[in-house]
Amino acid sequence: MATELYDLGVPAFTRGLRALDALLDKAVAHAAATGQDAEAWLDTRLAPDMHPLRKQVQIACDSPKLCIARLSGVAAPVHDDSEVTIAELKGRIAQTLAYIASVPRDAIDGQEGKEVVVTFPGGQMTFEGRPYLTGFALPNFYFHLTTAYGLLRQAGVPLSKRDYMGSPG
């Protein structure tokens, strides 16, 4: 049996978002144990021209929800990027996971050839469904997930590769 589009995206997005949620839990626990302020880490950046941790989490949520919405046609929740606390970011992750889980498999499968147009400041890109998922949405998601992980490691949160990978299922 051929791998369906749903199988290429939804499990990876779900696992990654659950891992991100757990990374934030570990950050809060580490901050409490060491007398640090985990909320202050939300403004940290790897480089001056990169987004801070807060925005990395927001984009790590946007990439899967917009991918699923573009492929399925099922409207995604709208977030205004106003989260200022870890609890609010965890809420956004939970909303994104709930949205992804609510989209039926048959709304995504079969969209391999669907035209997907991504508009961003300064231009747009046009894809077919499968290359959009595998060549744009998934790499973008993992970039922001990895950057969030790196920022927390830089802050001293004791995370491992296993934490980044999350648990299957």
What does this structure look like?
The structure is a single chain. Helix 1 (5-34) runs antiparallel to helix 3 (86-102) and helix 2 runs parallel beside helix 3 (86-102). The chain has one domain (5-157): dinb family like domain (Four Helix Bundle (Hemerythrin (Met), subunit A), Up-down Bundle). The protein has 6 helices and 2 strands, in the order H-H-H-H-E-E-H-H. The mean pLDDT is 96. A hairpin with a 2-residue loop joins strand 1 (115-120) and strand 2 (123-128). With 169 residues, the chain is mainly alpha-helical. It is globular, with a radius of gyration of 16 Å. The protein starts with a helix and ends with a helix.
The outline comes out as: globular
Return the domain count.
Answer: 1
CATH fold name = Four Helix Bundle (Hemerythrin (Met), subunit A)
Low-confidence stretches: none
CA-atom Rg in angstroms: 16 Å
Give me the secondary-structure category.
mainly alpha
Specify the number of helices: 6
Indicate the CATH class.
Mainly Alpha
CATH architectural name: Up-down Bundle
**What is the number of beta strands?**
2
Q: N-to-C SSE series? A: HHHHEEHH
Roughly what fraction of the amino acids lie in strands?
A: 5-15%
Could you tell me the mean pLDDT?
A: 96
Taking strands numbered 1, 2, ... along the chain, how are they ordered across the largest sheet?
1-2
For the largest beta-sheet, the strand count, sense and barrel status come to:
2 strands, antiparallel
What is the CATH superfamily label? dinb family like domain
Helicity, in percent?
A: 55-70%
Q: Distance between termini?
A: 21 Å
